[in-house]
């Protein structure tokens, strides 16, 4: 029984490079982001980690990251599931704004609260707590079952949707999870016990 779950934040997007709040907006990967995704795939191939199923969001940058990794693994035909439940946190009125401009408009402290608090949403958007509320049911219903059957599962998603998964896997508190930083294109490999708790965890660099 492998019970392997690999989480990967999408490669650098065009809006990451421009320091913009992205959320549910749909920019593509930069050339650097493409290479990050390919590199992640090569790292997994070097570990001889092949997958039964892949999951990603409804957003292009995560979908392309998954596709590029699977291509590097020689697994382009693996069944993949795309669902908005795995989308990035919705940033509402902040979407498309430069982060420095947002600080000038609303102030450093207010923007920090919107970005790093657990339960304070930006205007018209989601808090991290809201994101957790949509990600975790999807995880329990769709991602966890094949892992517990002994399959290897690959998830390419976003900083905040993956924070939601790490909150459960790593047993993080609402105070701890907003501070979790996930680099783009870096695989995080979990091996689970039969009761869904974490047996081991490895971050590839």
TrEMBL record:
Pathway note: Carbohydrate degradation; glycolysis; pyruvate from D-glyceraldehyde 3-phosphate: step 3/5
Position of the signal peptide: none
GO MF term (any one): phosphoglycerate mutase activity
Cross-referenced InterPro entries: His_Pase_superF_clade-1, His_PPase_superfam, PG/BPGM_mutase_AS, Phosphogly_mut1
Alphabetical keyword list: Gluconeogenesis, Glycolysis, Isomerase
Catalytic residues (UniProt): 10 (tele-phosphohistidine intermediate), 88 (proton donor/acceptor)
Pfam family, one: His_Phos_1
GO terms classed as biological process: gluconeogenesis; glycolytic process
UniProt catalytic activity: (2R)-2-phosphoglycerate = (2R)-3-phosphoglycerate
Residues where substrate binds: 9-16, 22-23, 61, 88-91, 99, 115-116, 159-160
EC number per UniProt: 5.4.2.11
SMART domains according to UniProt: PGAM
HAMAP family the record matches: PGAM_GpmA
Its job: Catalyzes the interconversion of 2-phosphoglycerate and 3-phosphoglycerate.
Quaternary data: Homodimer.
Family, similarity comment: Belongs to the phosphoglycerate mutase family. BPG-dependent PGAM subfamily.
Annotated protein name in UniProt: 2,3-bisphosphoglycerate-dependent phosphoglycerate mutase
């Amino acid at each position: 029984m492998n019970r392997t779950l690999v989480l990967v934040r999408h490669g650098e997007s065009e809006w990451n490079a421009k320091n913009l709040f992205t959320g549910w907006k749909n920019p593509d990967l930069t050339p650097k982001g493409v290479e990050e995704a390919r590199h992640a795939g090569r790292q997994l191939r070097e570990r001889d980690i092949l997958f039964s199923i892949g999951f990603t969001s409804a957003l292009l940058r995560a979908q392309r990251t998954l596709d590029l990794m699977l291509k590097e693994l020689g697994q382009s035909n693996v069944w993949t599931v795309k669902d908005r439940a795995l989308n990035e946190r919705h940033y509402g009125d902040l979407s498309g704004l430069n982060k420095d401009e947002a600080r000038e408009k609303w102030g450093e402290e207010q923007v920090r609260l919107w970005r790093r608090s657990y339960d304070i949403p930006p205007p018209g958007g989601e808090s991290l707590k809201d994101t957790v509320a949509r990600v975790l049911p999807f995880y329990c219903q769709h991602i966890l079952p094949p892992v517990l059957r002994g399959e290897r599962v690959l998830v390419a998603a976003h900083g905040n949707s993956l924070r939601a998964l790490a909150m459960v896997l790593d047993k993080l508190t609402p105070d701890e999870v907003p501070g979790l930083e996930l680099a783009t294109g870096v695989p995080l490999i979990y091996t689970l016990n039969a009761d869904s708790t974490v047996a081991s965890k490895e971050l590839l660099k």
